[in-house]
TrEMBL record, chain A:
PROSITE patterns: ABC_TRANSPORTER_1, ABC_TRANSPORTER_2. SUPFAM superfamilies: P-loop containing nucleoside triphosphate hydrolases (SSF52540). It catalyses: D-galactose(out) + ATP + H2O = D-galactose(in) + ADP + phosphate + H(+). Pfam families: ABC_tran. Part of an ABC transporter complex involved in carbohydrate import. Could be involved in ribose, galactose and/or methyl galactoside import. Responsible for energy coupling to the transport system. It comes from Anoxynatronum sibiricum. This is Ribose/galactose/methyl galactoside import ATP-binding protein. GO terms for molecular function: ATP binding. It is a peripheral membrane protein. It is found in: Cell membrane.
UniProtKB/TrEMBL annotation, chains C, D:
The keyword Manganese does not apply. The chain crosses the membrane at residues 30-50, 56-77, 84-105, 117-136, 148-166, 186-207, 238-257, 316-333. This is ABC transporter permease. It is a multi-pass membrane protein. It holds the Pfam family BPD_transp_2. Keywords: Cell membrane, Membrane, Transmembrane, Transmembrane helix. It is found in: Cell membrane. The lineage of its organism: Bacteria, Bacillati, Bacillota, Clostridia, Eubacteriales. It comes from the Bacteria. Its main location: membrane.
Length: 504, 300, 342, 342
């Protein structure tokens, strides 16, 4: 045998959706025991290509060879049986069912009578959970888990199929370093056992850390496949975007004004305690912490959608905020962390999704809504944020994940807020767009807006913030002035609770 | 009964010369009694070479109005209507008069004490009479003392209200007779049965008689009583359906009241036919109720 | 041929092509309209008198009552709810309105000595009572979190019970001539159709051109996201159900005007007809998707169907069967617009 | 006190404490059980004969018919669907079964000369016909993508139409003694209750211990998750509706046995009662949440309520109002289990 046969060959894949050609001519070749990165901007067609492979969207045309055999007209069930499994970009929990039933859905272990063997399922689940080092009772209902844990379960599930080829579509977008490391060690083990992995991520450091080869798609078109070791960051970005991107964190020093927002002793029995902080006009406060530190909860409480005790001052005046409506009236905005759950309106179009929070300002004197103004605004932001869509009437559900995020960013920018809370604002966003959003955040700060940004990506926090607030188990362990010589390790010491309290 | 059903209606109405078309608007063909009325109409029409078109309003008064108007539009020669709601027939009467089509109401009287207007007829009986007959039969069999439960039809139905009124009118004349309960079994046998079961728990041996607004519910009551081993409770219905007559013969049902439903439909259609031919039949035709007990059940 | 004309022809061709394409797009998007047109053509071929002006007005009048209810139901279902109480609310508001709109001679047992009242009194009574009951529905489900199905199922039974108690089970008739005029015509156009038309326009504006309308879609599309986006979900839910109840009150007025009497058992089962009309018109029970024109077309499909089956002289039992089948087939055809070419 | 006894006492105390806590947990989790118990206590205080064995069996028997339908409805609603056709399917399967189960003397107009058939014939006929109709429902909605509401609404009308055509509108009675025995008792226990019990157990096993059951939850909870896990959604939907239809057939047999006759208009509106029972029992219309015991308790709530109101001698009109209110209140209390402390 001279040449090792490929596990997977996808040739000339074309996929048309009504009004959109998602894949023009995509190719992908994966060898055995290979971790193969699939790269591209938001909307480049990565997820679509993978959905074609796993049998969710059969391709409009093109050929797929798996294990050297041409495969066509197969369902997802067939794909799973053939030895292809997938971690999906959008989480798919059956919320009200236990972890174990989620893992073994569609292939439940059975006893002699043909009934589901719950005991065996429990044992098997324990084994799987051990593999990913997750200490949860397999009987816990999925809805009780945090997004990160759900994601770990999805990973466990995909692995438990014992498939020859595992597709991982942005598995780390909801994970922090610890879990990412864990995932990588699992991936290495799989590789040793000769399994192949297709890995999709917008985090370049991960690509360099774990993958062997990279295939790049742009606008549904195959661009190139190269060995990761032969690539530089700049070249990879160039392949994806088609141009150079120089500034990753374009933080520019800008004038910092008076205290805009002050939170004093905010507590809600369960998630956080005695949280106090101040943010000034023109300042970006980064919030760091491990998953489950309670960052989201604090912000939600300040925004009025979660009840808590404590005091909130805006411009030195005490305000009472009990609903998002109150918050918006106080010129606050919140970009939520969980896009699917409390971000997008899936079956509504981009126009509706973008304008909903700003509706008050479209109401004319005669109480009717000014559609023209709405449309103008929507078009403006599609342009500014370069949202990839055929038009404003496209259902947001049909956009790629990153583009959905951009629409949500636009939703809040439209309200012209003074205070912006951004919870993981660049989750799932490609490098190009990320730079754009960062630029936008910086320019907003430049306009004197007050910004609170939660991020689990430490480079992002460190690159963007003026000060960094670190949380651990519901308490603020430190508020640190951002310096040139600040290291990730230092922040992690606060985040893990090693340093108890130090406020700057 | 279904046999003749499909055929008659589907033919092209009023298309060919000569064959007269009767538009028949039933209140509810889900109601066994009404199927007898409709059968009577159909039988007459078939025997006389008429085309008959049967519509079912399913107890919806607006739907009945719509159906009648549509049949007028379509050009029927005469209308036979069993009113869903006798107080709401004004627009139907007006529409028929405007179109100059004879209109015969059957089974339920929209005119009360009044005389129908020109070109409009009524064939049937007074519901309240059935209630009175039940009451009288009960007093005769039970005596002037006892406790009674009344199984009502759908609470807003005229038949249910009037028959119950008739029951109460008679029973209230006897201080020894007590009405324990009045509840609705919605004309249905199973619901009559469940209610009776509950009454047996609530009132036990105190319950002496059950008057039901129709035979279906009465037969449900009989079933519940038999299951509980009670043969001392007198049960009476209205309609004299075949099942009910069987039960009267067997002694489980004390009495029922015959309403010649078939005859009403038959006569109603005949009058419509007459009027459409330009004759002038009498505007009011009464077809009386007859109490049916074990003594006379074989005559029916 | 000069260059100019050639260009013109080309432009024209393009325009034609575009128009054709647009027509195809529309038919694809509005499949149910296509079904309606097919039905109308089919019936008219078999029975030419279907298309007489009189019969057309009949059909419109016939769709008015449940059509008006379907308008309110569109808001409710778009917000991911359901309202099972509208039939009963029609009956209750109807008997109350009728008792206030009786002719003086029938001096009502309800308000002896009150005499004849101006028509506005019963109309306002029905509309306000309907809105109140609807608001109770909305308040119940938004403040306690019980499913709309249960809240409105309870109200369905309760409202019917009150209608029975109010009337003692008998219909209320002898309405004033002014009242029954509402069932008549203005010129050639039936007044129920005019009222229906006004309600269509109001609801259309409400759903498409007001903040409230946008909120309805948002709540149905993702209630949590709506909350975070600053929509006052509770208040809007109350308004949605109040509007639906109010339209049931309007339908009650049309009902009373047309029939000349209101029965406490009236409109039993109309909730299903209204929901069916809405659903046939493409409003999704999954929330977030619903249009006013869809509800109107859905109601028309039902009334054309019933009218047509009667005109065709189909046997009563078969009418039910065919009606059921056509509803299903109509929605299947309408669905094809979403069909993905696999 | 020896050490041993002390330990025993402690253990006992602990057991007591645990039991108490468990009881509180259960009551909180199963709020509707709590409501049911409250209702039973309330009624028994006012009317002690409520708790006689006879009446208890009555209540159980009375809940059997719509309770059996509610079992099937639980699967349907858990899968995020709805089945409006069960009442009509009961009527259609019932009349067909009755026509096959008439005594030879009443030699039926349906099958003249066929004579009396063994009881298994009508039972199988009802069950298979019910399953077939259900499968048609399921097939329609899964292959065409029309909403379950429309598919089953259509079937509701169609099945009723066929029942009317089959019977010509008259009830079918004179069932064989073997048939009506099904409405009787085995020892002291009413046979409808036994049949209901068997169906509960079968449905419980089906939903909790088979792959099919897991699929039902997954389809309702997150249809995409089901799809990407390789669950054959279409096939499972067909099975779900077929099972629901089959149970309507079983309910028809119980109905026929109990009543001794089946009317083509029978069980009108039972679909709403079955859906109400299911919903009261906590099955969510949003899909993915549903339990068999919930459906049983929900059905019991309804039948205890109806029985109780009759025992209390509440006026017929008020019964409706109170029934509506209590359904709403029961579900509100049940909801409190989900109330999140903000
Ligand atoms: N069901 C659909 N209907 C219509 N268009 C779709 C559909 N699914 C995807 N698309 C379009 O196809 C294109 C590719 O989307 P895809 O989700 O594959 O992008 P992606 O590369 O995975 O992006 P991201 O990095 O943001 O996840 C996008 O323009 C998207 O809008
Ligand atoms: N639905 C829920 N039920 C129970 N506990 C929850 C729920 N959601 C969150 N928690 C708990 O609240 C705490 C904080 O949650 P969360 O993970 O959102 O924090 P975070 O700091 O915002 O993390 P990140 O944003 O990085 O995911 C954790 O202990 C988590 O387990
Ligand atoms: Mg993607
Ligand atoms: Mg968070």
């Amino acid at each position: 045998m001279t040449e090792q046969p490929h596990v997977l060959e996808m040739k000339n894949i074309i996929k048309n959706f009504p009004g959109v050609q998602a894949l023009k001519s995509a190719e992908l070749t994966v060898g055995p025991g290979e971790i193969h990165a699939l790269m591209g901007e938001n909307g480049a067609g990565k997820s679509t290509l993978m959905k074609c492979l796993i049998g969710i969207h059969p391709p409009t045309s093109g050929e797929i060879y798996f294990d050297g055999k041409l495969i066509e007209n197969y369902s997802t069930a067939d794909a799973l049986n053939m030895g292809i499994s997938m971690i999906h970009q959008e989480l798919n929990p059956v919320e009200h069912r236990p972890i174990m039933e989620n893992i073994w859905l569609g292939r439940e272990p059975k006893n002699r009578l043909g009934l589901v063997d719950h005991k065996k399922m429990y044992e098997m689940s324990k084994e799987v959970l051990e593999m990913i080092d997750l200490k949860e009772d397999p009987r816990t209902e999925m809805r009780h888990l945090t997004v990160a844990k759900m994601q770990m379960i999805e990973i466990a599930k995909a692995i438990s199929y014992n498939a020859k080829l595992i597709i991982m579509d942005e598995p780390t977008s909801a994970l922090t370093n610890k879990e990412v490391d864990q995932l990588f060690s699992i991936m290495r083990k799989l590789k040793e056992n000769g399994k192949s992995i297709i890995y999709i991520s917008h985090k370049l450091d991960e690509i360099f850390a774990i993958t062997d080869k990279v295939t790049v798609l742009r606008d549904g078109q195959y661009i190139a496949t190269e060995k990761t070791a032969d690539l530089t960051v700049e070249r990879m970005i160039k392949l994806m975007v088609g141009r150079d991107i120089t500034e990753m964190f374009p933080k520019v020093a800008c004038e910092i004004g008076d205290v805009k927002l002050e939170v004093k002793n905010l507590s809600n029995g369960k998630h956080f305690k005695n949280v106090s902080f101040q943010v000034r006009k023109g300042e970006i406060l980064g919030v760091a912490g491990l998953v489950g530190a309670g960052r989201t909860e604090v912000i939600e409480a300040v925004f009025g959608i979660r009840s808590a005790e404590g005091e909130i001052y805006i411009d030195g005046e005490r305000v009472s905020i009990h609903s998002a409506e109150d918050a918006i009236n106080n010129k606050m905005a919140l970009l939520t962390e969980d896009r699917r759950m409390n971000g997008i309106f899936p079956m509504l179009n981009i126009l509706q999704n973008m304008t909903i929070s700003n509706m008050k300002s479209y109401v004319k004197k005669n109480k009717l809504v000014d559609h023209k103004k709405m449309k103008t605004d929507a078009h403006r932001f599609i342009e500014t944020l370069s949202v990839k869509t055929p038009g404003i009437y496209q259902k947001i559900e049909n956009l790629s994940g990153g583009n959905q995020q951009k629409v949500l960013v636009a939703r809040w920018l439209l309200t012209e807020p003074d205070i912006l809370f951004l919870d993981e604002p660049t989750r799932g966003i490609d490098v190009g767009a990320k730079a754009e959003i960062h630029k936008l955040i910086t320019s907003l700060a430049g306009q004197g807006k007050t910004i609170v940004m939660i991020s689990s990506e430490l480079p992002e926090v460190m690159g963007m913030s003026d000060r960094i607030m670190v949380m651990h188990e519901g308490r603020v362990t430190g508020i640190i002035e951002n310096r040139k010589d600040l290291t990730q390790e230092e922040i992690m010491r606060y985040a893990t609770g090693e340093v108890k309290e130090k406020l700057a | 009964a279904c046999g003749g059903g499909g055929g008659g209606g589907t033919e092209a109405p009023a298309a060919e010369e000569g064959a007269m078309t009767i538009g028949y608007a039933s209140s509810n063909l889900n109601d066994t009694g009404q199927t007898f009325v409709a059968d009577g109409a159909r039988t007459y029409a078939e025997a006389n070479g008429l085309t008959i078109q049967v519509q079912d309003a399913q107890e919806d008064v607006v739907r009945q109005q719509d159906q009648v108007k549509t049949m007028i539009e379509q050009g029927v020669d005469a209308l036979v209507v069993v009113p869903v709601d006798t107080s709401a027939m004004g627009p139907i009467t007006d529409a028929a008069q405007e179109a100059g089509i004879p209109l015969v109401y059957v089974n339920r009287n929209p005119f009360g004490e009044d005389q129908p207007p020109e070109g409009v007829y009524y064939v049937g009986s007074q519901e309240i009479v059935a209630g009175r007959m039940q009451g009288e039969a009960l007093v005769e069999m039970m005596g002037e003392e006892g406790n009674v439960g009344i199984l009502m039809g759908i609470l807003s139905n005229e038949g249910a209200i009037k028959r119950t009124e008739g029951n109460e009118e008679i029973l209230s004349q006897y201080p020894g007779i007590n009405i324990l309960a009045k509840e609705t079994g919605n004309w249905q046998r199973d619901q009559g049965m469940s209610l009776t079961e509950n009454w047996l728990t609530a009132y036990g041996d105190d319950l002496n008689a059950i008057l039901a607004n129709n035979d279906e519910m009465a037969l449900g009551a009989v079933q519940a009583l038999q299951a509980a081993g009670r043969d001392d409770v007198l049960v009476m219905g209205v309609d004299a359906t075949p099942d009910a007559k069987e039960a009267v013969k067997g002694g489980s049902l004390a009495a029922t009241v015959l309403q010649d439903l078939f005859g009403q439909g038959n006569m109603g259609t005949e009058i419509a036919h007459q009027a459409a031919q330009g004759n002038s039949p009498s505007q009011l035709t009464w077809i009386d109720f007859v109490p049916v007990t074990i003594d006379n059940v074989d005559e029916f | 041929m000069s260059k100019e004309t050639a260009e013109q022809t080309m432009n024209q061709n393009e325009t034609n092509g575009k128009a054709k394409q647009a027509a195809i797009e529309i038919l694809k998007k509005y499949g149910i309209v296509f079904v309606l047109i097919l039905m109308i053509i089919g019936i008219s071929i078999l029975r030419p008198n279907f298309l007489t002006p009189n019969n057309i007005f009949n059909v419109l009048t016939q769709s008015a009552i449940f059509g008006i209810m379907a308008l309110g139901m569109t808001l409710v279902i778009t917000s991911k709810g359901i309202d099972l109480s509208v039939g009963s609310v029609l009956a209750l508001t109807g008997v109350v309105a009728a008792s206030l709109g009786q002719s003086a001679s029938a001096t009502s047992k309800f308000f002896p000595g009150l005499g004849e009242m101006p028509l506005i009194v019963p109309i306002l009574a029905a509309v306000l009572l309907g809105a109140l009951i609807g608001a109770i529905n909305g308040g119940l489900l938004s403040y306690t979190g019980i499913p709309p199905f249960i809240a409105t199922l309870g109200m369905m039974t309760i409202a019917r019970g009150f209608a029975l108690i109010y009337t003692g089970g008998s219909p209320i008739s002898s309405l004033t001539p002014a009242f029954t005029r509402l069932g008549g015509r203005l010129g050639v156009v039936p007044i129920p159709v005019i009222i229906y038309g006004i309600m269509i326009v109001i609801t259309w504006i409400l759903l498409n051109n007001t903040q409230f309308g946008k909120n309805v879609y948002a709540i149905g599309g993702n209630i949590k996201a709506a909350e975070v986006s600053g929509v006052n979900v509770k208040k809007n839910l109350i308004l949605i159900y109040a509007y639906c109840g109010m339209l049931a009150g309007v339908a009650a007025i049309v009902f009373a005007g047309r029939v000349g009497s209101v029965h406490p058992g009236a409109a039993t089962g109309y909730e299903l007809t209204a929901i069916a009309a809405t659903t046939i018109g493409g409003t999704s029970h999954a929330g977030g998707i619903g249009t006013v024109w869809g509800a109107v077309v859905g109601a028309l499909v039902l009334s054309v169907l019933r009218n047509g089956l009667t005109l065709l002289g189909v046997h009563a039992y078969w009418q039910q069967i065919i009606e059921g089948m056509i509803i299903v087939v109509a929605v299947i055809i309408d669905m094809r617009k979403n069909a993905r070419k696999k």
